[in-house]
Each structure stands twice: as C-alpha cells, then as structure tokens.
User: Fold this.
Amino acid sequence: MTQALWLETVLLADGWADRVRLVHAQGRITAIEIGAEPQAGEQRVAMGVPGLANIHSHAFQRGMAGLAEARGRPDDDFWSWREVMYRFLDHLDPDDVEAIAAQAFAEMLEGGFTRVGEFHYLHHDPAGRPYAQLGELSERIVAAADQTGIGLTLLPVFYAHATFGGAPPRPGQRRFINDADAFARLVEEGRAACARLPDAVVGVAPHSLRAVTPDELIRVVALAPDGPIHIHAAEQTLEVSDCVAWSGQRPVAWLLDHAGVDRRWCLIHATHLDEAETDGFAASGAVAGLCPVTEANLGDGIFPAARYLEAGGAFAVGTDSNILIGAADELRALEYGQRLSHRARNVLAAADRVSVGGRLFDGALRGGAKALGVDEVGLTVGAPLDLVSLAKDEPSLIGRRGDALLDGWIFAGRAGAVDAVWRWGRQVVADGRHVDAAAIAARYRRTVEKVLAA
Ligand code: NGQ
Ligand code: ZN
Assistant:
C-alpha cells in the first residue's frame, strides 16, 4: 500500500528542503515531491531528519546501567567495570536477554536511532554450555528487533581468548566462547533468524585482537567477505602496551598492516592512536565506530577526531554499554571531548559545513550506513523510510532553519526533542514514546527486579 507523509522542512539526502511529500510503499521511499501542498488527511511533520545508525551496542548492558557508578576499589577503571559487567551477565536467561534488548531498542528509536549494530557475544547458558539451539540468544536479539521495529545489523561475535598470544579464556568469559566451526554455524543460524526481518544485515565481529588469534581472524572474516566486519581496538592503553609486547605494533597499526582493513571494516573506539595510525586509518576507508558517552563513562580516553576528520576519515556513533541512549547525546559528547582537550570551540566543524551539528550528523549518517552494511544514505528514493521528527514546541528549535535545527537539537535539545519516528515506513514512536513502550517497560521491570534480587 502506498502512503505519504508531508513535512514542513526535512533533511533529504542532498540537503534541506521545504514542503516535502515523502511517498512510501513496503518500507521504502518511492517518490519525493518538493514544494508540495499538504493534502487533506495526510499526516504532517514539522521538522524531519533521517534516522541515524547506532553502530555499536551490547544490548544486555542496558540492564546494568547506573549500577557500576559506585567505587568498588580505589583504583576503579575499565577492567574493574568489566568484572561488574561479567557478574551481571552471569544471571541472564534467554527471556531476560530479550526483555532487556527490547527496552534498549525501544529507547534507541526514541533517541533518534533507526538501526542498530548489535555486537552480540553472549552466546551460551550461564554455565557456558551451548543452548540446544546454538543461536538461541541471537534469536532473542532478532525477536527484540522484530518487536520494536528497529533495523538490525547482527554482528555475531567470535571470542576465544583472554588476551594476546592465544591465552585461554577466563571463567567469566565462558558464555562467549566458540571454536571456528561452531562460530560458522552461529553465523549461519543468525542469517536464518534474520530472514524474518525486512532488511536485516548479518556481518561478523572478531571481538578484539585480545580475544582472537591472527589465524582465527582470517577464518572469521572469510565468513562475511563483503562485511560488515567490526572489531574493538585500542580502547585502553593496557591493550596498546600488551599488543606492542606481543607483536611490536600498536593494535590499529597491526590491523592496518595485517588484516586488510578497508571500507568493509569498522574499528570500534580506536581511542589510542598515534599520528601515523590516525592518518593510515583515515585513508583506509574503514569507519571509526565512536561511542563517546560510554568512552567517557568508562574512562577510556579521547579519540583524535579533529586530526582524523581533517584527514578525511569516516566515522559513526554507537551507544555501546547503553548507559544512556540517544543520538544527540553521542554527537554532543563527541564534540565536547574535543573542546575539552583542545580548549577550543566548534572543533569538528568543516570549512564547507560550519555547523558542528550539521557536520557531525551528516558524517554519522554516512559512516553509519557504511558500517552497518546499508547501501542508501539518508532520505532518498529507494531508501527505507526511516525518519525522525523533531518536536515543534522544543524551545531549542524555535525560529531555526536548516543545520541550525541540528545544532539546537544536539547541543540544547531536551528529552522529548524527538517526538515521532518512522522506521521501515511504520510509525514506531509517537509523542516521544515507543508505541509498545508500556508492555516493553513492564517486562523489562520484571526482568531487572528478578535479576537484581538474584
Ligand atoms: C564488551 N565493552 O565487550 O562489552 C567491552 C568490554 C572487553 C567495551 N569495550 C569487554 N566498552 O573489551 O574486553
Ligand atoms: Zn563494545
């Protein structure tokens, strides 16, 4: 069935346009009319932007958001946070994983993301035994995507070792571990599970150079020869020094030299780069998968975004630990990290795009599509109708036009700035809430109460 939306102003793939009708059928845009008159009975939107990709999520971690913010030992750091996270995931059964993922995915839609790259590494039961169906927990991620309507790029994670040099995994990692053959089956099952979603993509995710040997990396990448291929890299200085001790090279330098990193790849975090790595990475065509809110929360450090963008590097944003979920939050944190470290303002603006919001939104839109294996970028004929409506009574949007709307939303928008979202042509957020929010939240509440009481 053909349907249409009429927008007062909207950011199309080739720029802002006014009085636009987006005609869509079976999830995709079939026609765009600019300078159109609204028709009686047609749904109207004041200000629209394309939905962004959230390129890096561990959905289950939403369930422990805010629970690791009290000091556990005087030198709390990323690694002690990871111990808390491992203890939390020890309790989750398949229903819990689905309930938490549905809550996280609903919040992503409410926050302006219309597709998620789920970096999915929780595979086995709490004792580390495979479920009767190996891909049971991938199925649950797919079910949560199906229920919420979010676009899914499933990234099954290969994890085999505790650190560099093929070290055996630790007990806390038992739910993640597969050999190469089992992993190949897991990817196959993930593809089969995703067949029920309209436009899902399945890639692969070697977890990190800590968790995967070079031989395993080759086998894992061969399972998704066209990508997307995602890997955590250089988030922590300990990983950098361990990698140097193992190979004589830093993680990103090693990947660039040995792994065939190109536009199929997304390097998650890539926080700690020297200048040669920054420039080599930017030239590789791969995407930097930045997760600024989580990176701040975990005390990771600051990605050299100014130099990387100057060198033409592609980037996208992700919510990673899901401590707080929102597209504007990630883009704001990305720019603020740069302002704090450079003691300057409007650091990530470009000569040909002086609006920081415009530059960051456009960059994250392009990089996000590339990283999640989506061909179309933004609102254009043939692309999915994945649309975010900004609230016309949001104070920080009053009297703005064009990129100033993005600056207002990203830097000054409050909760509620996103008032409606369409994904695959269907309205999934109305009045700022997911259309199924009540049921999803009730199930999430029961799950978290149960898990925290355990
Ligand atoms: C993860 N999260 O896989 O959930 C990781 C922590 C690790 C982040 N890196 C575990 N933010 O890297 O070993
Ligand atoms: Zn991660």
User: Anything to note?
Assistant: The first strand starts at residue 2 and ends at 12. The two ends are 48 Å apart (CA to CA).
